[in-house]
Structures are given as C-alpha cells and as structure tokens.
Amino acid sequence: MSRLITAIEIDGAGGHPGAWRGPEVDPGAILTGSLALRAVQRAEAAGIDIATFVDTLEAPVDEVSVRLDALGLAARIAPATSRIGLLPTITVTHTEPFHVQAQVATLDWVSSGRGGWVADVSTSTEAAAVIGRRDPAPAADLWREARYVVDVSRRLWDSWDDDAIIRDAPTGRFIDRDRLHYVNYESPTFTIKGPSIVPRPPQGHPLTAVRVNTPEALEAAGDAELVLLPGTENLAERVQAIRAAGQEPAGGGLRLLVSVAVLLDEDAATAHGRAEGGSFDYVGGVEGLAGLVREWQAAGVDGVHFRPASLELDVPVIAEKLLPLLGVTAADRPGTTLRNRLGLARPASRYAEEGAR
Amino acid sequence: MTKQIHLAAHFPGVNNTTVWADPESRSQIDFASFEHLAATAERGTFDFFFLAEGLRLREVKGRIHDLDVVGRPESLTVLSALAAVTTHLGLAATVNSTFNEPYELAKRIATLDHLSGGRAAWNVVTSWDAFTGENFRRGGYLDKADRYVRAQESLRIVRKLWDSWADDDLVLDQEAGVFAREGTGAFADEGAHFGIRGRFGLPPSPQGRPVVIQAGDSDQGRDFAASGADVIFSRHGSFAAGQTFYKDVKDRLAKYGRTEESLKIMPAVTVVVADTDAEAVEKARHIREQQVSGPTAIVLAELIWGRDLSAYDPDGPLPTEDPVIGSNVTQGRAGFNDPASIIKEWREAADANGWSLRQTVINQQNRQTFIGSPETVATEMNRHVQENAADGFVLVPHLTPGGLDDFVDRVIPLLRERAVFRSEYAGTTLRSHLGLLQ
C-alpha cells in the first residue's frame, strides 16, 4: 500500500460549533490568525502534508460568526511554515477568475511551491446578495462554470513559460515576449485575454482541490488533482466512481482523501460529552481511528483529511498520537514543493510545449 | 511646531525607474525580495510598505512591453505573508475599485488588518479602459467619467462594512456562549453602482479600520482624496509643485469638515545618496543611464509622440515629426496631457546642449528628487516637510530589493538626530504611526 497522505482542516477554533468555548481556547486568537497558525505548525511538525482552510463568500452563520479570508490566512501562515501544503477555499461564482488565479499563483510564490486551493461555488442567496451582480443559480450550473475557472486558471499559470524572464542586457529586454502567451479564453460566462500578471508559479500548477460534498461537485472532481470526499459510507463505490471520472490531469494522478470530522479522546465519557451539539464521523480514542483509517485505505483512498472538532484539543492528539500509529512521520516526505510531497509531477506549460516560440 | 516626517517604502515597479540590469538587482517575484525590502523599511522605522498592482501587462504597439520589469504578485496575498515577518510596519495594498466588488475588498483588506494587528492600508485606484477590462468578466464597462463615482461609492460602502460592528459587538463570553451580538455586522446599500445586503463577518481591527490612500491628481481625484482619504500618494515631489499641490488639497479639507492633520500628503520620490554631493550627482547620472537604454529611450519618446519611432537612432537627433494626439501606441499606462509642449522643451534642451534623443530623455525625464550626501538629503527632505511641500515621502528605490539600504543606513540616523523622524515605533498600528485617529 502506498504512503498515506494526511491533511487537516482549519476552521475557526475547530469543526465543533462550540469549540471556541473551551477553557484552552483564546477566542480572540481566531481573529489574529494565531490559533490557526499554531494548529498548522503542530500539523507540519508531525508530518501532515496539507492544511485546508474553510471559507465562504458570505459571513458564517455559526456561533463563531466571524471568519478571516482563507487566502489571506494561508498567506500569513506560509512564511511561518516550510513543508506543509496550504490550500485555502476560494469561491469562484461571484469572483473574478483572473484575480483568483493570480491569488493562488501568489500563494505558491510566497510559500515557495506549497500553494493550492480548494475550489468552491457559492449557491446561497446570501452570497449573491453581498455582491449583488448575479442571481443565485443551481449548483449544477455553478460547478460547470467552476470547471471553466479551473481550466482558465491553469492556462493563465501556463501563460508565462518558465524561462520567460531573460534579463538580456545587450538587447535591453527583461523578458522574451514570445515566451508569454495570450490565453484568449472564452467560456459561456466570461472571457479572458491574458497573459497572467504573475510569472509562472514554482509548482507550475498550484494544486487544485475539490470537495465532493454534493452530486453536482462530483463532475468537477475529474478536473482536480486532490479530491476531498466527505463521509465514509459506501466509500469503496464512491472512490471507484471518482477514479472512473478522473481525467488524469497534467502532472499525472488524482489524489483522493476521505474527509472525516473527528473528535479524539481516550476517555469515552469525555469524548461523548464534548461531541454534544456537533456532528462527527468518528468520536473516540486514537486506536479505533487508526483501525478505520486502514479500512479506508483498503477501500481505495490515498489518504485522510481530518476535520478536528477542536484545533487546540484534537490537533495535538492527531499529531502526536494518531500519526505515529499510522506510521506517518515528519521525516519521510521527499521534496520541498507540495507536488513533490504528493508524488505529482510538475506540469510543463502547454504553450511552451506547443512550440510557440 | 516641528513636523514629524512620514516615510513609506515602495516596492520597485514595472517601469523604467527600476533598473534590472544592475548586478545588484534580484528577483521581482521571489518572496525573499519582498521580505528584504520590508525588513529594511522596518529597521528604518518607516510608516508603511507600499505595493502597486497590475491587472494587465503593458503593451507597446500591440505587443507586450519587454524592456522593463514585467510580472508581479497579487498585492494582498504578498502583504498577508509579510505580516508574518514584520511586527510594526504598515502594509499598503493597491487594489482597483473598478474590477473588484466592495464586499470582497472589505473582507480581504480587513483580514490583512486583523492578521497584522492593525497595520493595513488600501490604496484606492480606478481604471476604466477596455484594455484592462479584457481580463475581467465585465469587460471595459465603465465610462472614464464614472470611474470616480464608482470609486467613491465603493469606498463609502467598504467603510460602511468596516464600521458595521459596534465596539462592544464582539463579546467573546465563553461561559455564556456568546461570541458576538446577534445580527451584528448587518448591512444594506443601494447606489448608482451597487445594490448589496448581508452581514459582514469581521469586527474592527486594533486600528479601528484600515488606512485609505488615494493617488488621484485630477480636480475630481483631489476632491475624492480630500473627502475620504487618510493619505495622498502624490506625484508632486519637487519643492514648488509640492507646495502648490499641498496647499490646494489641504484647502479642500475644510469643506468636508476635516482638519489638516487628518490627511497626510506623501509624494513619490527617488533618492540618490553618496559620500559627497558631487559623487551623488555622478551616481545619479549613472543610474539615469541604466534606466534609459537606447530601446527604452525610443519607447519613452513614442509615449510622448504617440507614433512609431522605431526607425530612429536613439543616439541621433530628436524626431522631427509632430505628435499624434490620442493614439494608442502604448496601452496600460498613463499618457501625457500636453505632448506638444513637452516636445518643444525637449527640442530646446537638445539644441542648447547638443544632446541625442537618449541623452535628452535621460536629462529631461524623471530626474531623481533628492541627490546628495546624507547630510544634504536629510536637510532637503526636512525642508520639504517643514515648509509644507509634503508631510512625508513614498521612497521609490531603483533596485530590488536593496535599493533603500543606503538610505536607511545613512539618512535615517540624521533625520532621527534632528528629531524629525521617530527612533522607534511609539505604537503598533499604522494609524498610530501616521498620527491619525484610531
């Protein structure tokens, strides 16, 4: 069995709506980003491969009714970490695709090749109302559009050849403009001329992830390099369906992670007490979860995306107790970029390959 | 009363001020370059670090301009990363109000403000052209005349969202289980350009709300700044033009019920420092030669003449043709209002000095603002501030990322000695550095 990929989700003080109320939590640290930073650093130290950051365009309706922009938070964490991949959720329904791709490319630059994103859509009337440009639309339409956004993002990341910057003093040219490319992209809902304003990011293509939490999102999973699959029911069948739909993106291979809400405590009574008011895929001790992870692996997933109930309580347990049981250590990951880490090749630019020069 | 000088560090831009062919020049995109300049600025206790923005690569005669630095990162993402490696320095992002929506702007900039502990600023810029619009959903939808209407409405709404929480709305009562007051952050707004409603999910930061910077220079732009900006990033760096601009804008404040101290005027300036004044003049000339290669001289002349001058020799005489008014020979940057009078001045100067086209460009355009020994530069800068040509300066270095090293090492100590510039930060927020109300 191949090496297990692990990821962790950052959302406020944790996935449990009341996580912020714990005496171990400084709730003000949700807003400064320091709660998230500590969790990601703990995860990194334990060998976790990826941190994802929850976001929606509209403000959250949970108890914790504040949320930092996920991209900004991931960028803040980038210089304070060195190995973990950083994937903020970015919604594409009411935002500009040109900005989105530049933002993700920039995250890849500031993290030296550890950037990516969880592409998402905004189906709610609330999200539509805060922007006021488009009416809410059915999820199927929005995911269709999202696939165009993913496609044009990759094209814009390819719009600079890796060697476009030449600094050729004798001719006075900073770039070879034949190595920059107009993408001239047309989709049913937007057009983009290009090229990007950002030079080609370190990974070529920063990692694109999709959370398959609705049937409509399933279609877009085929375009992603990383699929987050919430829930554990009928796992083997769902994994097979996604692998069948996968288009084998440039750089090769789709990484599929089962995404589980977990609350960890060796004491059953404590665990169940803490779980009240939340909804979890697993509540209990680390041995039990380690056993399930092996079952999920056998069902065909490449790894697990943990959504901890509390960043302060559960991340240390995942990092220090669970991962050693699963044989994950900080030392056994090759390379410096996220693609290296996941064994994904760095895609060549499609335009450079076309021999445009 | 002696005024205190305010200083900002501008990351080198995508124009010919930035010298990329120098052996000291480093990457314009690696994070290390941003980190270096920010660390230098913070060592020099600057007020803030400033990033410009690009939404489309510039073109000359229908092709991507290749003679200057090309390509840059997205501002807010870089500044959020810089928040991790700085502790006091303000972080100013240029973000376009034409191709961004107020809710997104408010959320992203407020996020930077929280992540940095109250150090964020928004430089509000506008564009209207179809050229830039080709990269966006809406295309070139905005009339030039409407750009400030939209910008003003956008700024008003962004501030409304930043102010949508009362000071005590963030409760954080863990025992009672009340994170924030019910329904806090609710907003609704209808205007000519926007109709939005919802809830804003971020309370005020430690500085209350981010600082707003404006760079408009037209009559409309100046009124826009006088009505709502905290800082003006001006282009009037010379003493005389600075004083005129300063008075014009400060005189506009009263009609908006504002004090003169509530708006800081900070022209963009360039500085050349050397051991002696004579050495600095020589160094400045060398930098100008680096900034204006032969091909660059031709392109800069084309920008003024509005026509293809590629047949000319940059080391020969000036073109003899008249300018073409309103041509599209270059795209993605500001043109000149009165090319005919510029050309007349250039011809006179070239004739008087026997200059070639390149020499004329080198000598007539964009000479450095402050040139001299550390003593001379400190004296001059202070004179500009004390005699109301400015409240401070946005320093634009010509080298990435070490272009302000000399200034911070040699001029800052002299400004500190004269007690016109801080020796250490008195507060932690950008508003505190700028002496603005929180």
TrEMBL record, chain A:
InterPro entries: Diverse_substr_monoxygenases, Luciferase-like_dom, Luciferase-like_sf
UniProt lineage: Bacteria, Bacillati, Actinomycetota, Actinomycetes, Propionibacteriales
Domain of life: Bacteria
UniProt keyword terms in alphabetical order: Flavoprotein, FMN, Monooxygenase, Oxidoreductase
Name of the protein in its database record: LLM class flavin-dependent oxidoreductase
Domain annotation Luciferase-like: ranges: 36-275
A Pfam family it matches: Bac_luciferase
Gene source species: Kribbella albertanoniae
Gene Ontology molecular function: any one: oxidoreductase activity, acting on paired donors, with incorporation or reduction of molecular oxygen
TrEMBL record, chain B:
SUPFAM superfamilies in the cross-refs: Bacterial luciferase-like
Pfam families attached to this UniProt entry: Bac_luciferase (PF00296)
Domain Luciferase-like residue range list: 26-386
Keywords: Flavoprotein, FMN, Monooxygenase, Oxidoreductase
Superkingdom, taxonomy of origin: Bacteria
The keyword Membrane is assigned to this record: no
Listed name of the protein: LLM class flavin-dependent oxidoreductase
Organism (species): Kribbella albertanoniae
Source lineage: Bacteria, Bacillati, Actinomycetota, Actinomycetes, Propionibacteriales
